[in-house]
């Protein structure tokens, strides 16, 4: 398994061939405003709603002819609107809250009365209610993306990547969409587990937490047997009784090994088998030659990976800098597998890699982005074997400042394959037969370089969240053996820091060459999220500076104040929730969490498509020979970045759901037992309680907490009783009883055993004031109070 540099959380000019130009849509009603004058708040909001494809500060300034001081005033106005919750930032645009971003993944779910396709966003937060409907406009043009080939034609059940526009017809859906590409065909089928029922019929047990059980009549069950994971379509919906379904295909038995991850793979539409053309291209690939390469086979680069890693895409080496201008400085070399040599633009391998976006890691399997012939063989930096690589040599001063770097296309030979634990043990004084000879010439110089680089990291002050990562160890039958927190070693941190600096070097070089690329960007917390965090921290006596120009070290000071206090875990979680999500984009805004202005993923091209794009950009811009970025690829970077950001979220959701199902299956036989847990989430509907020993969480509905009327206080992250003043806050240690476990849905339901604790006076005062205001409003409206959950 490859390493993932830990991100503690989340441009270029106009390019030819961009998709979805405004001229292709009906013109909106003109806005009556003098050209060059700062528009009003209302005009800005209307323009963004009507022109989502032009909703950036640059496009707004251009549309209204703003220059000089007017552009500065526009910036302040947009910041005010964002602070008030009237606007929110996306990948590179501004949208109205609840609006769809300009490029969205849609699932086509139905047709309107005229037979036109209707889609809804594939990812939509539950707290925002029903996902908006989008009318799909099929292209009448014969040209597809970039004017090549046929335009994609979608059908019912397809998942598509689409350009979003506001609808001109106010009587129908709020949006229209033009198809960029079809991501997956026929997603109308549902997944579930077939269970035998009397009379030869069957039942479909849902795998989603909110899924509905269905009846499968004997003539519709096909060859399905009890316990099979099946794909069905709804055969009939009636006014009474359960809906009826028809089995379309049998995926396999849920009792078999790896069945749990297959549920997530199918539910999220993750491609997991390679088409014959892709396998054939991989099998036919020949080892790289020395053309356009430097011979680095004598450089003692080593790989340091997890003990069970099958592919090795990075190797490292460090030495003292011999330059008299850099006394006590070091040279750090990072070599990365040269995937761009084997995976060329628009080849079957490339198209399949883009379709996947990244490798997906489950406890019981890996769904790779590239076939094993590429990922585990030709591109894996195996010990003692010649392998092509892209390498960067970085010079650091003794203070840890990077003072220069150079890129090279090389042929290398790994001097050793080590695990994190092996390398760390050698440094700690217990080398083995393999690491003993490497200690003085290789390992100690690496650790010396790491100490120097740490000085630069400490000065940079990235966000330092303390969130232990739990791992699941499985038995041979695919069930959970145990859950544990692996130690965080200096060996992990060394590789992480060297990979981060290599990623920075890649972005800097490509910017210097004026080469378009895909950045890894991470926006700062929105002002609304900052305010929620500020109110919460105030309840703990911790202050958060006001103002929109927050930096990572501001949050580090908050975390330091919470260290070694009962609130440490709670504060870390709330700071994490306040952060934005890192995404990919051709437009650079920097990386807030790492506190870096230029950052691009370069170090894992075996498992991330973004890194492959950056490799191609380096090969092309530095004149390194074959495998450079293609012009049509450059023109499509906006769409590619949107796709791979979506696929990354897809992988994260599938991985999380698989862990939930495995843990629920593990605990299913322990219903009725009591567990020690911690309140990990507080909502209007109830409490989420985490079991630290199992890496799982379950839900306690508010209606089961007790006889009191419980009130939700977002600022204090608490539920407290109106009469007793007793309640529960985020981070509270509690004892719970497992009331229900649903393995297929990955759901646990708990009952609270612990008594609530006395809520702070501020919380009770807040509740009383809120109840008085609500009572006064109801009297004015002449309505009765609602029934509370008791």
From TrEMBL:
PROSITE patterns: RIBONUCLEASE_II, S1
Top-rank taxon: Bacteria
S1 motif domain location: 672-740
Basic and acidic residues bias locations: 1-10
Top EC group: hydrolase
Ranges annotated as biased composition (Basic residues): 777-790
Stretches the record annotates as Disordered: 1-29, 761-790
One CC-aspect GO term: cytosol
GO molecular-function term, one example from the UniProt record: exoribonuclease II activity
Gene3D superfamilies according to UniProt: Nucleic acid-binding proteins
Sorted UniProt keywords: Cytoplasm, Exonuclease, Hydrolase, Nuclease, RNA-binding
Catalytic activity reported: Exonucleolytic cleavage in the 3'- to 5'-direction to yield nucleoside 5'-phosphates
Matching Pfam families: CSD2, RNB, S1
Stored CDD domains: S1_RNase_R
Function: 3'-5' exoribonuclease that releases 5'-nucleoside monophosphates and is involved in maturation of structured RNAs.
Family matches, as PANTHER family: DIS3-LIKE EXONUCLEASE 2, RIBONUCLEASE
Protein name per UniProt: Ribonuclease R
Species of origin: Rhizobium grahamii CCGE 502
Upper lineage: Bacteria, Pseudomonadati, Pseudomonadota, Alphaproteobacteria, Hyphomicrobiales
